[in-house]
Design a protein that fits this description.
The complex is a heterodimer of chains A (219) and B (647). Chain A has 219 residues and is of the alpha/beta class. Chain A is built from eight helices and five strands.
Chain lengths: 219, 647
């Protein structure tokens, strides 16, 4: 019922969508962030990375979305999804995006340079589904310098962090899925450090992420 | 397809892609790098990744039945044995990237007996127990790895070792070698018109049995041999001023220098000839291969060596045989013969050499009518000789009635001195500690030996304990072995009845432990003169040897060989078969590394050492070596418990 109400009173859900997509998206929109989030351990984090054919969210195309769950301290390939947007037509894409929403639920999302990733996602979700996508984002790019100041107190390229942590991730360009597995490892380390610093819930982490971004941007 | 079905598909794709990193990791580590792609895919898709900050517990006895197979991706994990306070000191080990645990517990679905703790920030793969079992039943490589943890590693390593040796062996001459490397190079030749007398004179001067006849362009046109001299010169009344072309065998058999020794052998057999002339690309004479040259290629064989040793007319001939023993042992090592068989084999041939040296010397020293026996001590006494072993020997004898003991002893000492010197010439260096039959201390009557043994056992002071580790490993080599048997019975009855002696031996044996680091893999700073190196004898094989000796003495085992001792005393003392086999595998691996080191790195003529640099081993060997040292530690902690040794 609640979903239909949202639909009727305007989140601008595309009217041409097939019924199964409509109902899935409405259900997602209606969802509250449920689940236990009283600690990092209990929080279901979803790490997200994208592939695109350019760097500008307004003019370039999103070609793939990868997501992996980090829950109860564990990263598991089984809890992953990959949306290939290179070939599919608009209806297929819409259904795939609905499936993506189904997968992430309302879990907090984790990425590296959230502004970039979220802009691409928001644009496409608006275009295909008609919704204004918003999520609770945790930005590792800003959190890492806040939590691991002894390694670097400023944001650095991801690969520099990997070197700083001594993580061996092989050579060459990584696919979004592979990159997620690495971001997931960084998150695993990060929440342990955050907990030790008293930053022990997802809200606190997001606050910290925002504060860090503000502090380090304005200085 | 509705949204739900699409999601299931996208998840499958996500899982496949996310597994990529894990597969790349697995491809770099044994045994995974040997496993089929499907098995790796299963592992990579099912395994979770967990992070353990330094200091955190990973799994322990209190964690309940083990639910995962843990594989370390990065970082360091320490394993400590839980409970049994007395042995904890001996049971700390550290694991690094690519190592997995607790294989026994996850297979059996029981709690781990060890406490595993991250000592550095560590990432671990968790393969759920059910997927682990699936993998065990579908991947033969993984199954082998888990069920025969050490054994399979040993096997892989041996194969690697073999490849290394095969390469070296192939550089040596075989029947596949080209003729350009065999026989005489650039042989002397004469022109066809050379008078017979001149040709015969140069044959005589050069001490050769045949002469090649070649034209002005060095192309062979004939060969003249000693048998031709009889048939075609002497019996045919050919004047010595005739040209050699009248007496030679024309159009001799030639082969290009790229042909193999095998081709030459075939030609000799087919044409009934004894020489094959070797020519270069232009058909010019470049060498001669004789039947004897080919025979030399095959000379190194067990039977031939034995025969050569047993019929050797003098020490010089034995010297050549000793070199052959070394060559043959090397070939056997290349063929993948294990350390146990190999050391016993070397010992057997060394025994034959020693016996022949004794026999040759007995031609100058007559002991008829006297009961005596030549004894081998130390590694020779244990049948565990490696390529470089110095002499450890003695004599036991009885004084016949009416014979003067002192005079008899002097005769034995004189004989022993000659024998010791000859053994040195043959390649068994004189013992630096003078543990040799020519030393009056170790040339004793049966009663004197018995008294000596009793004294060491009753008063186990440091020197006595040191002597016990050498002299209690005795074995009869030549002469009346009943004397040696009598010594053994005396020793065993005395030792097993004197627990205080065995306890002192145990304390001594525990003074040196295996060089396992608490954080790093190996402790390489134990020998100040050789930083970065590990003495594989002192900190490796000797540990096993010492423990085996004590158990053998306690259990009344007559054998002196360490493997025999451990097997037999384990039976008597109810140690489980698989437990003792793991220990023996450990010992065998260390011995194999010693042999490898002595042969591959030893310079000819220099006594090989036992110092290896663990950093220079490949990853697999390093891991097995670590595992072998753990086995050493395991038997040490058992000894410690059994003899209540508290340092």
């Amino acid at each position: 019922m609640f979903g239909i109400k949202k639909f009727l009173f305007g989140d601008g859900l595309n009217e041409n969508l097939p019924p199964d997509v409509k109902s899935a998206v409405s259900a997602w929109l209606a969802q509250e962030a449920t689940g236990l989030e009283s600690s990092h351990f209990l929080t279901r984090y979803v790490v997200v990375d994208i592939a695109s054919d350019g760097m500008n969210p307004d003019s370039d195309r999103l070609t793939g979305i990868a997501a992996t769950v980090v829950h109860q301290g564990i990263v598991s390939p089984e809890q992953s999804i990959y949306v290939d947007l290179t070939t599919a037509d608009e209806t297929v894409q819409a259904r795939q995006l609905a499936a993506f929403l189904n997968f992430i639920v309302k879990s907090p999302l984790v990425s590296y340079h959230v502004a970039f990733v979220s802009a691409f996602l928001e644009n496409l979700l608006k275009k295909r589904l008609g919704i204004s996508f918003s999520a609770r984002w945790v930005d590792l790019a800003w959190l890492l310098p806040a939590m691991f100041g002894e390694k670097s107190h400023k944001p650095m390229p991801l690969d520099d962090w990997l070197v700083a942590f001594g993580l061996d991730v092989g050579e060459g360009r990584r696919s979004p899925s592979e990159n997620n597995m690495i971001l997931a490892r960084l998150l695993q380390m990060l929440v342990v450090r955050a907990h030790a610093k008293g930053v022990d819930s997802v809200e606190a982490l997001i606050e910290e992420s925002k504060a860090s971004s503000h502090l380090r941007r304005t200085r | 397809m509705d949204v739900g079905q699409v999601e299931a598909m996208l998840r499958q794709e996500g899982q496949r892609r996310a597994a990529g990193n894990t597969q790349a990791f697995l491809a770099r580590h044994a045994p995974f790098n040997k496993m089929a792609p499907a098995a790796l895919q299963l592992f990579a898709e099912k395994a979770h990744i967990a992070f353990y900050p330094a200091g955190s517990l990973i799994v322990g006895p209190d964690s309940g039945n083990v639910r995962f197979f843990y594989l370390i991706e990065s970082g360091k994990v320490q394993a400590r044995q839980a409970g049994e306070v007395t042995v904890t000191e001996y049971s700390i080990l550290s694991l690094g990237a690519g190592e997995s645990f607790p294989i026994g517990a996850v297979t059996a679905g029981r709690p781990s007996t060890n406490i595993y703790t991250a000592v550095e920030d560590t990432f671990c793969y968790h393969l759920p127990a059910e997927d682990y079992l699936t993998l065990m039943s579908t991947s033969p490589e993984f199954n082998l790895f888990c069920t025969q943890y050490i054994a399979s590693l040993l096997d892989q390593s041996r194969r690697q070792l073999q490849a290394q040796f095969a390469q070296k062996a192939s550089e040596q001459q075989t029947l596949n070698s080209p003729l350009s490397g065999i026989g005489a190079r650039n042989p002397t030749s004469v022109l066809p018109e050379t008078p017979l007398r001149a040709a015969l004179e140069s044959m005589s001067q050069l001490g050769i049995g045949s002469m090649v006849v070649a034209d002005a362009e060095q192309k062979p046109v004939g060969i003249f041999t000693r048998s031709d001299l009889l048939d075609r010169v002497v019996l045919a009344d050919l004047p010595l001023n005739s040209p050699i072309s009248q007496a030679m065998s024309a159009s001799p058999f030639t082969l290009n220098e790229h042909a193999t020794a095998y081709d030459a052998m075939l030609a000799m057999a087919t044409h009934g000839i004894r020489h094959v002339l070797v020519t270069d690309h232009a058909g010019r004479l470049s060498g001669v291969v004789s039947e004897r040259d080919l025979f030399a290629l095959q000379r190194v064989g067990l039977r031939q060596i034995r025969q050569a040793i047993e019929s050797a007319p003098n020490v010089e001939a034995l010297k050549a045989s000793a070199a052959d023993v070394r060559q043959l042992s090397f070939n056997m090592l290349a063929q993948g013969i294990g350390a146990e068989q190999l050391t016993q084999f070397i010992s057997a041939l060394n025994d034959a050499l020693t016996r022949r040296v004794i026999q040759l010397n007995l031609e100058n020293h007559d002991f008829s009518g006297i009961d005596w026996c030549w004894l081998a001590f130390g590694s020779e006494g244990r049948d565990e000789q490696t390529f470089s072993t110095d002499q450890d020997n003695g004599i036991v004898y009885t004084v016949p009635e009416g014979e003067d003991k002192e005079a008899l002893k002097q005769r034995f000492l004189a004989f022993a001195l000659d024998t010791n010197k000859d053994l040195d010439k043959v390649g068994f260096p004189l013992c630096k500690g003078n543990i040799m039959a020519s030393n009056p201390q170790w040339c004793l009557t049966l009663d004197e030996w018995r008294a000596q043994f009793s004294k060491w056992i009753r008063t186990p002071e440091p020197v006595a304990l040191l002597n016990a580790t050498i002299f209690f490993d005795f074995r009869p080599l030549y002469g009346k072995s009943e004397l040696s048997d009598s010594m053994r019975r005396h020793l065993l009855s005395q030792a097993s009845a004197t627990p205080i002696f065995l306890q002192a031996m145990a304390r001594n044996a525990l003074e040196v432990g295996p060089p396992l680091g608490k954080i790093r893999d190996f402790a390489t700073d134990l020998e100040p003169d050789h930083p970065g190196k590990i003495d594989l004898k002192k900190y490796g094989s000797r540990i096993f040897v010492d423990v085996a000796r004590i158990y053998a003495l306690a259990a009344g085992v007559h054998g002196t060989n360490t493997i025999q001792r451990l097997k037999l005393s384990a039976q008597k003392m109810n140690i489980k078969g698989e437990e003792i086999n793991a220990v023996l595998d450990g010992l065998n691996f260390i011995q194999l590394l010693r042999l490898q080191h002595q042969y591959l790195e030893g310079e000819p003529g220099r006594q090989g050492d036992n110092l290896i640099d663990p950093e220079k081993l490949n990853e697999l060997d390093r891991r097995i070596l670590k595992e072998s040292f753990r086995q050493a530690r395991k038997i040490q902690s058992r000894l410690k418990l059994d003899y209540q040794v508290n340092h």
